[in-house]
């Protein structure tokens, strides 16, 4: 006796959260059944393995049919075929677009192309996430990217509107899209200690302050591309290190303001020139695409690592950076800058939230 | 009464990409009604076209309005080649033809293609202007309302229940026409869908005409079925109960009183079934049956084998007496027909009612289940306009049913239904119902007022009257074990009752009910034509007998004594017959406690064998005890002395033959009088019987927190919360062809059903505590080794805590009431009626029930009365089982009352609120509930919008790509649900009640990567409002009404 056909269709589509998770994680029906058996569900419910198998198959089939709609979530809301309560719809979408930290760190900043997709095998082996799940996550990134690129308006809003994601998830996707678009290098060994959250934090600040959208909210891709003009203007910062008087003046301003407030004051004072040069060099090189990609590597090399070697506490780094950027405004040459450039200067370079591997969180250092 | 049909095509959305180059579609729409076609402009390059067309107007006869569906085709315009069809929408405009239902159809309809399924949606607005024209000779029956619901619809009251209406129309099946060889599968499917739509429209119109002839205005319990006879054609047939309904005035509709039938009854000289008053002698509970009934020596429905063209033939080896009988019947039928050649009169010769629940007082006694089957050979229907052969077949069967009912001392049949099973050219026609005695008062013509009948009401003991036998105790039509009623101790009752109706709302039940199924397979040799038909008709009596025995055993194992909603389905396949009987078992307080089951061995000397036997016996006794606990069956103590030992005295033992393989010689020696004993004796003399016992014991009860029944409501549960989940589950298994024996088959089939149930319990575990109601199993044998089981049911949650309280209250009250006298009891419901209803926390029915249950005390000695079985043949093919139906009820039905008392679950409430409060927030599609029940828990149905009757065909030539057979059917059923919901929403409704999937024919050819499926569903589109909502808005009732309409409106925006 073999079961040829076995289906269950409810007027309200039944969604089993546990099975959905297993499906999203890319387990085969067989594996999913085994995992469910291990969870002790048979004992709780008195069901047999055959029942579990049939149930799992059924849910998998449903999810498979729903997947097409999940690719364009508004369709899920308007379709008539599956009657699903709104709360369940939201859950389906949110979970479908959720991603694994380990996975996103592997592809963050990479081009979302076929080439990268081929590497998913390796990523799967490395992270222990099933290839199926890797594909889903990768395709999600790519799909969101495709939909929102060349679109007007706020990136987060666009994502939210077209994919009906929660605010938090939409922000994460905005970061992923932003990183993929600008191809920031995040995979170097030096950057491994940084989490996706750290990068997402930076991305948000950069979107707010460095993109076209920061000046003009009516252009395509406004939140995705860096403002070329702004990057060009950053070149002007070179005087901060090139002009020795200005450098000294800047240093004295910072030191005066921070004296007694910094635990690592003497180290800072000794290193000011190096640190300032590092930061300014990173900023002035950003007109080259390659250097833009290496932004985070450079920041870590030129600034984070020196600080770390001197054992700066997080709070001191924050104080220093705030003062470093604030003092610039009182310098002679900068007072007369065109107004349009000012807001950009107000924003200090983005720095990963964490400067040391032990993971001190650095709060918002925007002034 | 011609009319003007107006159609407007508004917009489309989610259309498929038809032009690969541009990834877009140039869509336009054809609107066709009858022979007139209109077209919209092409809306170029869009997947969401906005046509916003003018109003297309069709001026048509109302006859066409009733028959024809509105056909909307969406196409992709192609400059160079033929336009490609995207899909179609068929809209039945019948609901627009009577005033009280929908006034406009407006909404998003899924665009359906028989090859690709749903492909986008289209927004359509349809209106009808009818011109009044009272043409006496009209062919249309606009205005007659149709209901699938098998009880009086909730916001109506029955003025008169006229009786049975039936009609059938036949046609050639387009699938089998020569043209089918040259046309595409799509064209063929569409031709079929359209034809069936036309035929059901025509059928409905014809039935409507009959209703008008009877001066009714509605059909309740309308059941329409398709017989796909293959080569020989397509039959669409329908039965129903003609009524004159009155809409309850609006404010009343919102009060629980809406269905207080007691009130109705007083003000209306109700109902007159067409049985010519021949049974009017039954105005006393004690029936003096005429001797003639016994001389008929019979209460059997023989599967008569009748070859087409030959008239009636023999019924196999035990044919002798039956043949005679049959002749007699046919003769009488002919006489009657001759005497009254008028169609109208002929129809009235069948006092049948398709209703399964009745206004209180309608039923006096119930005699038992009557059924008839007949095996026919199909041949081509030569003249579609003269469907006489099929008509004659059914007339024959109905005649038989009628005579069975007479034999039981009953003049009417209630809970009546008809079905067919077709395999190649063999067709089994089946009809079954419950023989009943109706209140004579209802038998009068509306004009004649009888004061005599008033007395009857008072004479009838409330709560148990329906259990009392309608036939003469001394001349019983079949052997039964009679005792005095445990409730009133005045009348005789049988030991078990089988019925096809729902449990009367006022019946006194102890504990809860449960789903009981008998399952059976019999192998049959492959044969052709007559030989095949003979083989089948020879097997049928054995199957019926076996099914009956299984039901009996299982009922006893559950410790219960009555079955409601019994439905026996016999399915014929190439090489086997399947029998599946489903019913809901209950413990009726008025009937005696069922005895146990006794196992007897054949070789008593063998010690180990004995031990084995006693071990089995113990297991059975344990199971019975466990079941009693599980279903809370604690009959009052007085019955203790009566129950006695489950093992009867040796001399009383009767043996029950299990196996069908015995030769007829043995048959004559058998003593089959199990009916007269306390206990059933199972003799396990062969492995066959052994397995039967095993299978008895392996039926696992549902997991805790689950209950199941196949009736509308679960006896013993009355505190439903509002969460419901209707579902359809389909399973097909392939039997290994090697070792097909009857036992292996039985086991496979049994496992199939049991596993299916287990899966359902598992899937719905999040709803616990809940009850699966209206569990409807359908078996079909699509191919040689395939068995297909389709289940549709609804899971309803209930409040466990409240249930406990109720039981407590129950016990307390029954204690209080223990001393109450019968006479007092009779008065008290009347008083209740005058009370303001909402002030009663519990339905009076319950209180009454309690008092009644405490009232059974009967000397054990009196139970001994019994009558022997006359013959094996009698027993085995007879489907006449005893029951009673409680007679007069002066109270209102407890369903409705219960509903009002309930609190709605916060969740459902929330949903509703959400929708009304912030329609745009969660955007989109209004929720449409579907349920096979006639009500929605926690809600009031405020309006019936019309019948939904839809037929779909889906075919694929890429089965693997669509996820194999499971993927294909899963998607199709989901699409069918979607289309039903869309139509209901477009009518302005928010639920379908009495939903039924009448047909799900699935055929596959995996080698060719093809599959095809036909589904036929029906139900009543309604508007309901949550009770919590109603309380708020009941004063401004229009608000409540517009609520769902708004939801519908949302969809269009």
Automatic annotation (TrEMBL), chain A:
Q: Cross-referenced InterPro entries, in alphabetical order?
A: FIBP
The Gene Ontology biological process annotation of the record reads: platelet aggregation
The record's GO molecular-function terms, alphabetically, read: fibroblast growth factor binding
Region forming the signal peptide = none
Task: Give the UniProt entry's GO cellular component terms.
Answer: membrane; nuclear speck
Segments carrying the region annotation (Disordered) are 346-367
**Family annotation (PANTHER family):** ACIDIC FIBROBLAST GROWTH FACTOR INTRACELLULAR BINDING PROTEIN (PTHR13223), ACIDIC FIBROBLAST GROWTH FACTOR INTRACELLULAR-BINDING PROTEIN (PTHR13223:SF2)
Q: What is this protein called?
A: FGF1 intracellular binding protein
- Identify the species of origin: Equus asinus
Provide the gene name from the record. Answer: FIBP
From TrEMBL, chain B:
**Which UniProt keywords are given for this protein, alphabetically ordered?**
Calcium, Cell membrane, Cell projection, Cytoplasm, Cytoplasmic vesicle, Lipid-binding, Membrane, Metal-binding, Protein transport, Transport
Q: Which SUPFAM superfamilies match?
A: C2 domain (Calcium/lipid-binding domain, CaLB)
* Gene Ontology molecular function, alphabetical: calcium ion binding; calcium-dependent phospholipid binding
* Chief localisation class: membrane
Q: Which Gene3D superfamilies match?
A: C2 domain (2.60.40.150)
Q: Which InterPro entries match?
A: C2_C2CD5 (IPR037785), C2_dom (IPR000008), C2_domain_sf (IPR035892), C2CD5 (IPR038983), C2CD5_C (IPR057815), C2CD5_YbjQ-like_dom (IPR056430), C2CD5_YbjQ-rel_dom (IPR056431)
Residue ranges, annotated region (Disordered): 641-671
Q: Describe the location of the C2 domain by residue ranges.
A: 1-109
Q: Which GO terms describe its cellular component?
A: cell cortex; cytoplasmic vesicle membrane; plasma membrane; ruffle
- State where the protein is found: Cell membrane; Cell projection, Ruffle; Cytoplasm, Cell cortex; Cytoplasmic vesicle membrane
Recorded coiled-coil stretches: none
Q: Which GO terms describe its biological process?
A: insulin receptor signaling pathway; intracellular protein transmembrane transport; positive regulation of D-glucose transmembrane transport; positive regulation of protein targeting to membrane; positive regulation of vesicle fusion; protein localization to plasma membrane
List the Pfam families hit by this protein, alphabetically. Answer: C2 (PF00168), YbjQ_2 (PF23025), YbjQ_3 (PF23028), YbjQ_4 (PF23128)
Q: What does this protein do?
A: Required for insulin-stimulated glucose transport and glucose transporter SLC2A4/GLUT4 translocation from intracellular glucose storage vesicle (GSV) to the plasma membrane (PM) in adipocytes. Binds phospholipid membranes in a calcium-dependent manner and is necessary for the optimal membrane fusion between SLC2A4/GLUT4 GSV and the PM.
Output this protein's name: C2 domain-containing protein 5
| Organism of origin | Equus asinus
Q: Which gene encodes it?
A: C2CD5
């Amino acid at each position: 006796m073999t079961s040829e056909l076995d289906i269950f269709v409810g007027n309200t589509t039944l969604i089993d959260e546990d099975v959905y998770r297993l499906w999203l994680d890319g387990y085969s029906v067989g594996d999913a059944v085994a995992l469910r058996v291990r969870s002790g569900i048979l004992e709780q419910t008195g069901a047999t393995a055959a029942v579990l198998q049939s149930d799992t198959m059924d849910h998998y089939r449903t999810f498979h049919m729903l997947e097409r709609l999940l690719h364009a979530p508004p369709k899920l809301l308007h379709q008539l075929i599956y009657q699903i309560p709104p709360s369940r719809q939201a859950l389906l979408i949110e979970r479908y677009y959720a991603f694994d930290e380990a996975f996103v760190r592997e592809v963050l900043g990479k081009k979302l192309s076929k080439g990268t997709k081929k590497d998913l095998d390796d990523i799967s082996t490395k992270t222990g996430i099933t290839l199926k799940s890797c594909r889903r996550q990768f395709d999600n990134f790519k799909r969101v990217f495709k939909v929102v690129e060349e679109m007007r308006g706020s990136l987060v809003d666009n994502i939210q509107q077209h994919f009906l994601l929660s605010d938090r998830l939409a922000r994460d996707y905005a970061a992923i899209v932003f990183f993929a678009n600008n191809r920031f290098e995040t995979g170097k060994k030096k950057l491994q200690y940084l989490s996706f959250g750290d990068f997402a934090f930076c991305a948000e600040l950069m979107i707010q302050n460095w993109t076209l959208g920061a000046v003009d909210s009516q252009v395509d891709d406004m939140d995705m591309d860096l403002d070329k003009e702004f990057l060009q203007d950053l070149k002007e910062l070179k005087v901060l290190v090139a002009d020795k008087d200005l450098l000294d003046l800047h240093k004295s301003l910072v030191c005066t303001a921070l004296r007694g407030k910094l635990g690592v004051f003497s180290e800072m004072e000794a290193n000011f020139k190096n640190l300032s040069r590092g930061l300014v060099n990173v900023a002035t090189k950003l007109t080259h695409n390659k250097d833009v990609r290496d932004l985070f590597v450079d920041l870590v090399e030129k600034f984070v690592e020196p600080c770390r070697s001197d054992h700066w506490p997080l709070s001191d780094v924050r104080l220093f950076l705030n003062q470093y950027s604030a003092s610039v405004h009182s310098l002679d040459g900068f007072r007369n800058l065109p107004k349009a450039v000012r807001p950009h200067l107000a924003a200090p370079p983005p720095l990963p939230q964490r400067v040391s591997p032990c993971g001190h969180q650095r709060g918002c250092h925007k002034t | 009464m011609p009319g003007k049909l107006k159609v407007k095509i508004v917009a489309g959305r989610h259309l498929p990409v038809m032009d690969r180059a541009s990834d877009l579609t140039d869509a336009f729409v054809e609107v066709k009604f009858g022979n007139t076609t209109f077209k919209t402009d092409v809306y170029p390059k869009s997947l969401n076209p906005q046509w916003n067309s003018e109003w297309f107007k069709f001026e048509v006869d109302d006859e066409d309005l009733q028959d024809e569906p509105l056909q909307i085709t969406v196409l992709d315009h192609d400059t160079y080649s033929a336009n490609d069809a995207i899909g179609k929408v068929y809209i039945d405009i019948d609901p627009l033809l009577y005033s009280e239902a929908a006034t406009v159809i407006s909404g998003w309809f899924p665009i359906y293609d028989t090859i690709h399924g749903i492909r986008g949606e289209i927004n359509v607005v349809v209106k009808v202007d009818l011109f009044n024209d009272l043409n006496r000779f009209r062919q249309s029956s606009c205005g007659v309302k149709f209901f699938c619901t098998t009880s009086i619809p909730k916001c109506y009251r029955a003025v008169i229940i006229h009786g049975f209406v039936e009609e059938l129309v036949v046609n050639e099946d387009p699938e089998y026409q020569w043209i089918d060889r040259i046309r595409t599968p799509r064209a063929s499917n569409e031709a079929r869908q359209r034809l069936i739509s036309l035929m059901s429209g025509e059928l409905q119109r014809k039935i409507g005409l009959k209703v008008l002839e009877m001066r009714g205005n509605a059909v309740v319990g309308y059941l329409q079925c398709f017989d796909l006879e293959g080569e020989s054609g397509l039959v669409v047939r329908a039965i129903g109960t003609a009524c004159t309904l009155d809409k309850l005035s609006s404010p009343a509709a919102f009060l629980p009183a809406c269905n207080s039938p007691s009130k109705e009854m007083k003000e209306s000289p109700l109902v007159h079934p067409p049985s010519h008053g021949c049974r009017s002698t039954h105005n006393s509970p004690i029936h003096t049956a005429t001797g003639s009934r016994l001389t008929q020596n019979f209460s059997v429905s023989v599967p008569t084998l009748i070859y087409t063209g030959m008239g009636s033939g023999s019924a196999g080896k035990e044919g002798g007496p039956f043949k005679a009988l049959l002749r007699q019947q046919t003769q009488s039928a002919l006489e009657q027909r001759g005497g009254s050649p008028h169609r109208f009169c002929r129809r009235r010769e069948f006092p049948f009612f398709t209703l399964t629940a009745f206004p209180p007082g309608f039923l006096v006694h119930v005699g038992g289940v009557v059924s008839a089957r007949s095996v026919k050979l199909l041949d081509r229907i030569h003249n579609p306009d003269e469907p006489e052969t099929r008509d004659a077949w059914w007339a024959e069967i109905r005649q038989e049913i009628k005579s069975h009912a007479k034999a039981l001392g009953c003049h009417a049949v209630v809970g009546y239904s008809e079905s067919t099973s077709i395999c190649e050219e063999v067709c089994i026609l089946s009809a079954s119902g419950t023989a009943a005695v109706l209140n004579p008062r209802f038998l009068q013509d509306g004009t004649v007022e009888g004061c005599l009948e008033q007395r009857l009401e008072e004479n009838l003991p409330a709560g148990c009257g329906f259990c009392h036998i309608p036939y003469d105790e001394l001349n019983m039509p079949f052997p039964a074990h009679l005792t005095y009623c445990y409730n009133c101790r005045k009348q005789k009752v049988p030991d078990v009752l089988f019925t096809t109706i729902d449990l009367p709302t006022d019946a006194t039940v102890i504990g809860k009910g449960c789903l009981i199924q008998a399952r059976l397979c019999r192998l049959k040799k492959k044969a052709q034509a007559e030989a095949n038909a003979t083989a089948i008709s020879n097997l049928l009596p054995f199957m019926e007998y076996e099914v009956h025995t299984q039901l009996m055993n299982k009922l006893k194992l559950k410790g219960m004594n009555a079955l409601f909603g019994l439905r026996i389905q016999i399915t014929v396949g190439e090489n086997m017959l399947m029998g599946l009987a489903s019913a809901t078992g209950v413990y009726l307080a008025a009937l005696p406690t069922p005895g146990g089951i006794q196992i007897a061995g054949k070789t008593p000397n063998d010690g180990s064998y004995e031990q084995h036997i006693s071990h089995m016996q113990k297991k059975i006794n344990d199971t019975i005890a466990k079941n009693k606990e599980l279903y809370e069956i604690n009959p009052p103590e007085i019955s203790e002395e009566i129950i006695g030992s489950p093992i009867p005295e040796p001399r009383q033992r009767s043996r029950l033959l299990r196996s069908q393989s015995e030769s007829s010689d043995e048959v004559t020696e058998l003593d089959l009088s199990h009916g007269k004993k306390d206990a059933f004796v199972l003799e396990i003399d062969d492995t066959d019987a052994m397995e039967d016992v095993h299978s008895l014991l392996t039926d696992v009860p549902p997991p805790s927190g689950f209950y199941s029944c196949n009736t509308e409501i679960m006896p013993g549960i009355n505190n439903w919360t509002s969460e419901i989940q209707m579902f359809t589950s389909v399973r097909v298994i392939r039997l290994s062809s090697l070792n097909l024996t009857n036992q292996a088959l039985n086991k496979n089939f049994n496992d199939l059903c049991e596993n299916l149930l287990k899966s359902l319990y598992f899937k719905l575990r999040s709803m616990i505590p809940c009850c699966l109601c209206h569990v409807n199993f359908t078996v079909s044998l699509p191919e040689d080794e395939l068995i297909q089981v389709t289940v549709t049911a609804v899971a309803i949650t209930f409040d466990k805590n409240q249930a406990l309280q109720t039981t407590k209250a129950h016990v307390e009250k029954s204690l209080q009431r223990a001393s109450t006298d019968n006479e007092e009891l009779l008065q008290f419901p009347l008083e209740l009626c005058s009370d303001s209803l909402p002030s009663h926390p519990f339905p009076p029915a319950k209180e009454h029930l309690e008092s009644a249950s405490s009232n059974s005390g009967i000397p054990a000695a009196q139970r001994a009365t019994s009558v022997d079985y006359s013959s094996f043949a009698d027993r085995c093919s007879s489907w006449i089982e005893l029951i009673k139906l409680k007679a007069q009820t002066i109270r209102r039905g407890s369903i409705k009352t219960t509903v009002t008392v309930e609190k709605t679950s916060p969740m459902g409430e929330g949903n509703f609120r959400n929708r009304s409060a912030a329609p745009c927030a969660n955007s989109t599609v209004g929720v449409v509930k579907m349920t096979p029940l006639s009500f929605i828990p926690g809600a009031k149905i405020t309006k019936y919008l019309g019948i939904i009757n839809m037929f779909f065909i889906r075919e694929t030539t890429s089965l693997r790509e669509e996820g194999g057979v499971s993927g294909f059917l899963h998607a199709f059923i989901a699409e069918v649900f979607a289309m039903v919901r869309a139509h209901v929403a477009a009518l302005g409704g928010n639920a379908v009640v009495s939903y039924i999937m009448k047909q799900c024919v699935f055929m596959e050819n995996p080698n060719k990567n093809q599959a095809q499926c036909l589904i036929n569903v029906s139900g009543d589109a309604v508007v309901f409002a949550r009770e919590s909502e109603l309380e708020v808005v009941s004063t401004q009732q229009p608000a409540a009404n517009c609520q769902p309409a708004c939801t519908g409106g949302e969809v269009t925006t």
